[in-house]
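Cast an eye over this sequence plus tokens and walk me through the fold:

***
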Amino acid sequence: MTSHGLNLVCKAAQVEEYLKELEECKTEENYARFIHAAIHSERDSHVHQALEMIGANINSYEGNNSELYYQLGIGLYRIGDVKGAKKALEDCLKIDQTFWEARSLLENVELVLGRDEAKATRSKSLKHVAAACGGLVVGVAFTMFFSWEQLNEIFGGIKKAGELGESIEKMTTDGTKAGVGKASFLMGIVGAAVLIGLKKSSSG
């Protein structure tokens, strides 16, 4: 078992038993026991149930709020909300800076977030490289199949289309896809422009 207890798993039957006890007698001890068991349950529905209960009670809870934020962090991490888990653990440590289990889990969460950000950066870079290659291919194809006069007309059309694409981009909420699409289009224009210039120079 790791220092932050992520590998701890509670049987669903045990969670149900603690829930029954809580419903029969709503004490702080029964509440804390159920939350801990449900957050670590083998059944996802128990985890979500515990998260809902924590969200409804965390501001009015009279017990140890740092423990509650810690359990919230574990639960959010388990359902894949890593950013939410980070915030919950930071809130926990604001209350109790000596909560080493929360600090250990926070370090793990930050590592996961760092890997995700690095992966996103690599993916974005590859898309830009692909866009540049696409632009070059477009430019080469233009010089192979069209005369200078035809290329001049095509380039003017691409420029107008680029302006239209820019307007469309402002209307879309998907900034990533729009940005990559725009980059690909602009790189096509650049590739075509360079090769048009070379063709003109060689024929002049």
